[in-house]
Amino acid sequence: MSKNLSVQRADFDEVMVPNYNPANMIPVKGEGSRVWDQEGKEYVDFAGGIAVNCLGHCHPAMVKALTEQGNKLWHLSNVFTNEPAIRLAQKLTSATFAERVYFANSGAEANEAALKLARRWALDNYGETKNQIISFNKSFHGRTFFTVTVGGQAAYSDGFGPKPGAIEHVDYNDLAALEQLMSEKTCAVIMEPLQGEGGVITPSAEFVKGVRELCDRHNALLIFDEVQTGFGRTGHLYAYEALGVTPDILSTAKALGGGFPIGAMLTTAAIASHLKPGTHGSTYGGNPLACAVAEAVFDVVNTPETLAGVKQREQQFKEALAAINARYNIFKDIRGQGLLIGAELTDAFAGKSRDFLNAAADEGVMVLVAGPNVIRFTPSLIIPEQDIVEGLARFERAVAKLAG
């Protein structure tokens, strides 16, 4: 890595809109679960681009797919279809409940499509009064104005003018509150099968089954936002598989492309029929480059070896974090499923999750937060065992500095 820096972190502040405040260092190279910055410092990556880099950095299968497709065909627009998009859709439908796929560029776009489809389905079948969408407090569904309003964090949607209407929120895991709110006006309930940004919160089995039953009772669609939980993250291809509940619509992104931007909405043929030509679209959705890469990612992720390995790594992480906690007493809870793990800080360290993130980076390990009180780990699904050991040793050094 050259130290002859053509651009520096300070340049960001001169040319970028200030809605981000990135770290002081600039990563320039990644391989597997290791990353190097401009100065040549090495980091163990437990963040995975926020649950995106499911095969780590520069996985050979992804590089091969991108290179081969890059020499064939880059973009067409949806006036035409293409072979990678059809093949990827075939793989997604053969592996899930879904019969139809709509491709987009991100999780927000996949959720936007899901919510628009739910509204159109309800309008066509039941008329204009069936338009209520119910979501859950602390949920996160994207940053478009529709999805950010549906998300359960008002701070993200306040201050931009009048919000889209007929959107309600109740507490996650509170089935009684949902039952009280739902009626024949409800067209859809959208939920994460494991809340990510809201603090890595697992739903009870009774809650998930109850939501499905309430949707059936009121002729409402159940939308699962699996942008963060999907594509192997929990040790299943999609988290719904372990819950005994099947959604009507599912959104997927993040890990779907392993780092290449792509999102998808999955649903049944009957529901999909309500998005007729012209009702919704995306210039880049189904892009041959993105779909070729995602297909390669699918072929690695959707194997018994990879999915079983996620569960093994989960145990390794949780046991090591528990050992750190036994020494420093900083966590009140270590939770999550697969490699979406949240460690909630004790009251003594309340509000300091970002301090731990920064201290970890100083020690050479990348972690995430999920709100002010939870440290989040979303590494590669195939992160080597020795990288977990090394990364957690570095994390413990950061903990020792803050809590020792």
Provide structural commentary:
Pyridoxal 5'-phosphate binds at residues 107-108, 140, 225-228, 283. 39% of the residues lie in helices and 17% in strands. With 404 residues, the protein is of the alpha/beta class. The strands form three sheets. It has a seven-stranded mixed sheet with strand order 4-10-9-8-7-5-6, with helices on both faces. A four-stranded mixed sheet has the order 1-2-3-13. The longest helix has 25 residues, at 304-328. The model has no long low-confidence stretch (mean pLDDT 97).
Mean of all residue-level pLDDT scores:
97
At the fourth level of CATH, the homologous superfamily of the largest domain is Type I PLP-dependent aspartate aminotransferase-like (Major domain)
Number of strands: 15
Strand content: 15-25%
Secondary structural class: alpha/beta
Assigned CATH class of the largest domain: Alpha Beta
* Architecture (CATH level 2) name of the largest domain: 3-Layer(aba) Sandwich
Number of discrete helical segments: 14
Strand count, sense and barrel status of the largest sheet are:
7 strands, mixed
- How are the strands of the biggest sheet laid out side by side? 4-10-9-8-7-5-6
Q: Residue share in helices?
A: 25-40%
Pfam family, one: Aminotran_3
Binding site for pyridoxal 5'-phosphate: 107-108, 140, 225-228, 283
InterPro entries: Ac/SucOrn_transaminase_bac, AcOrn/SuccOrn_fam, Aminotrans_3, Aminotrans_3_PPA_site, Class-III_PLP-dep_AT, PyrdxlP-dep_Trfase, PyrdxlP-dep_Trfase_major, PyrdxlP-dep_Trfase_small
Binding site for N(2)-acetyl-L-ornithine: 143, 282
